[in-house]
Design brief:
The structure is a single chain. The chain has 665 residues and is an alpha+beta fold. It has 17 helices and 40 strands. The strands form nine sheets. The chain has a nine-stranded antiparallel beta sheet. The protein has an eight-stranded antiparallel beta barrel with strand order 25-26-27-28-29-30-31-32, surrounded by four helices. A five-stranded parallel beta sheet has the order 3-2-1-4-5. The longest helix is centred in the last third of the chain and has 23 residues.
Length: 665
């Protein structure tokens, strides 16, 4: 077994590999750029080597710099994580030449399966059903439009060396094919250093289901069942689960056996993932094979009990797999929510900055439930503009799907994250969505259920009433504290009342409260709510039991009440004495400023191009500017007809959130 390995990556996956290596008694080496000098993976590793400036193409994907770090530290093996050099054949060859083990597949398998065009040809030759498409290289946008028309819209335009949703566009007509081809090509060149593009038929109403495989160098290959990855936005996975709520045993077996056959056909070793799209009749089609560890691997580990990183290390050291296919059973259900530094209230655009508060729920593994959080950040750390926006991967496990969802709801509500925009509210809203709960999902779920973006969840009346009753009980605790303040004037004793009015979500609810040593009972909307909690004023997280059911909320004090966040909703909850409630109704409401005649930068980023000129008439939907953030190009379009009166930003300019790019008449 190796005594020292180097992790050629950063962030949460580097931390994840370090944890398993530590468990195995293996020393670790981290590499870091200037932007990651104080990163968590650097602190966790036994050694750390600086490899250059922040941009990945000057640090993390420069093979010579990684090789020099190996020479400096004497590392015997390298784990590439995912992204960066994880599927780079030249890197695997450089390691082999230097006599350093690559904790991944052979270079030949990377070459065969890592390139989407080649892999589809090989899959077809192996008898695997594939999606119709054009696997040759495409010279320019005109040829892309011609090929798209021949295949038939809609089509998927993909970067051959792509991954993580980068370099990928869906086109429904010639204009979108032309525009999508150029954007995909630019993103692919920036992210992977390879701008080759291919086009395939986009299968409508598909599920994205993938099979985890694991193979050793002794001819053994197993599949560790499937992961459902259909909850996606811009082709980037957001929520994953294992197993899939859609597959039956026969389809699972067929997909698994086909995935193993494909892996063995290319001499694959280590962990890998074969991705399929599955239609409503459970017909499945090969998409691609990822010759690396997947982001969503924790859900497979939770339902199988197999540490995939450990097995990758052992396979790279020449060991045989310690189990056969018959040993791999499905135990319970696991959910994974990807926490991104993306603001759901701004159409999920990237958000960078400092994490002023980062308090994930406690990790646990006990009978009937588990919570796991894979992360590479810490409170006070910074989310950089140079890398992808992932903050953490929050996972839960329980015996059934419904229980795993409920555990995830509570875990998301307990997750305290402040300082940047993030998608926690959206993840919480999905967990409560009836369609998701039913399991009737496709890759179009987010586009179909949130066509106008996300503006916060609307809670059911029953939950609103539970929140209102909780606010009443919490307000009583605060009132008692205020009543006990010292230094009062004589005859000015403060009496805590029993009758209150709770205003929340457009409802004004009369409430009566009676308390005892164990808790309080609130009568509200014709129902009694028994509430117990150890919450005290000033605590940002409230954990309560309401009629025997757990309720978790993030709490902040507001004049006359509280800001309460849970289940994807951000609520202003006011608790008034009856007379205060009467007077509050007379107060005017402050309106937000009018920004309808401004194009504001929706996220921190760099201006790639300005598509219009001063004095130009523009129409609804017309492209105005392109802003790049976290390796993704974002096209900003006109919301209505108008005339450009002033352009305040030029290509190459770095902008903050809400900086004015241009003004309209």
């Amino acid at each position: 077994m190796f005594s020292k390995i180097l992790i050629a990556n950063r962030g949460e996956i580097a931390c994840r590999v370090i944890k398993t290596a530590r468990k195995m008694g293996i020393k670790t080496v981290a590499v870091y750029s200037d932007a990651d000098r104080n990163a968590l993976h650097v602190k966790m590793a036994d050694e750390a080597v600086h490899i250059g400036p922040p941009p990945a193409n000057q640090s993390y994907i420069v093979i010579d710099k990684i090789m020099e770090a190996i020479r400096q530290t004497g590392a015997e093996a390298v784990h590439p994580g995912y992204g960066f050099l994880s599927e780079n054949m030249k890197f695997a060859e450089a390691l082999a030449k230097a006599g350093v083990a690559f904790i991944g597949p052979p270079a030949g398998a990377i070459e065969a399966m890592g390139d989407k065009i080649t892999s589809k040809k090989l899959a077809a030759e192996a008898g695997v059903s594939t999606v119709p498409g054009y696997m040759g290289l495409i010279a320019d946008a005109d040829e892309a439009v011609k090929i798209s028309g021949e295949i038939g819209y809609p089509v998927m335009i993909k970067a051959s060396a792509g991954g993580g949703g980068k370099g990928m566009r869906i086109a429904w007509n010639d204009d979108e094919a032309r525009e999508g081809f150029q954007s995909s090509k630019n993103e692919a060149a920036n992210s992977f250093g390879d701008d080759r593009i291919f086009i395939e038929k986009f299968v409508t109403q598909p599920r994205h289901i993938e099979i985890q495989v694991l193979a050793d160098a002794h001819g053994n290959c197993v599949y560790l069942h499937e992961r459902e990855c259909s909850i996606q936005r811009r082709n980037q996975k957001v929520i994953e689960e294992a197993p899939s709520p859609f597959l039956d045993e026969a389809t699972r077996k067929a997909m698994g056996e086909q995935a193993c056959a494909l892996a063995q056909a290319v001499g694959y070793t280590s962990a890998g993932t074969v991705e399929f799209i599955v239609d409503g009749a459970r017909n499945f089609y090969f998409l691609e094979m990822n010759t690396r560890l997947q982001v969503e691997h924790p859900v497979t580990e939770l339902i199988t009990g197999v540490d995939l990183v450990e097995q990758m290390i052992r396979v790279a050291a020449g060991e045989k797999l310690p189990f056969a296919q018959s040993d791999l059973k499905i135990n319970g259900w696991a959910m994974e929510s990807r926490l991104y530094a993306e603001d759901p209230y701004r159409n999920f655009l990237p958000s960078i900055g400092r994490l002023t508060r980062y308090r994930p729920p406690a990790e646990l593994a006990e009978s009937g439930r588990a919570v796991r959080n894979d992360t590479g950040v810490f409170e006070g750390g910074e989310i950089s503009m140079y890398y992808d926006p992932m903050i953490a991967k929050l996972c839960t496990w329980a015996p059934t799907r419904g229980q795993a969802i409920e555990e995830m709801r509570l875990a998301l509500d307990e997750f305290e994250l402040e300082g940047i925009g993030h998608n926690l509210p959206f993840l919480s809203a999905v967990m409560d969505h009836p369609r998701f709960v039913s399991g009737e999902i496709t890759t179009a779920f987010i586009a179909e259920e949130y066509p106008d973006g996300f503006e916060g969840a609307t809670l059911a009346d029953d939950l609103i009433h539970r929140v209102a009753a909780s606010a009443c009980a919490m307000n009583r605790v605060a009132e008692i504290r205020r009543a006990r303040i010292s230094g009062r004037m004589d005859n000015h004793e403060r009496v805590v009342g029993t009758d209150w009015v709770v205003v929340v979500a457009g409802q004004s609810l009369n409430a009566a409260i009676r308390a005892d040593r164990e808790g309080a009972t609130v009568t509200l909307a014709g129902q009694e709510y028994r509430i117990t909690s150890d919450w005290q004023p000033g605590q940002p997280l409230a954990r309560l039991m309401v009629n025997g059911t757990a309720l978790v909320m993030k709490v902040a004090k507001l004049p006359g009440g509280y800001r309460m966040r849970l289940r994807g909703a951000d609520l202003k909850v006011q608790v008034f004495a009856p007379r205060q409630a009467e007077l509050a109704q007379l107060m005017p409401e402050k309106l937000p400023p009018d920004t309808s005649k401004l194009l504001l930068c929706p996220m921190p980023g760099m201006v790639v191009s300005i598509a219009v000129e001063e004095g130009q008439e523009v129409f609804e939907g017309q492209a105005l500017a392109t802003v790049e953030a976290m390796k993704m190009e974002n096209i900003l379009r006109a919301e209505r007809k108008g005339k450009v009166t002033k352009i305040n930003a030029a290509p190459g300019a770095s902008l903050a959130v809400d900086d004015v790019i241009m003004e309209f008449e």
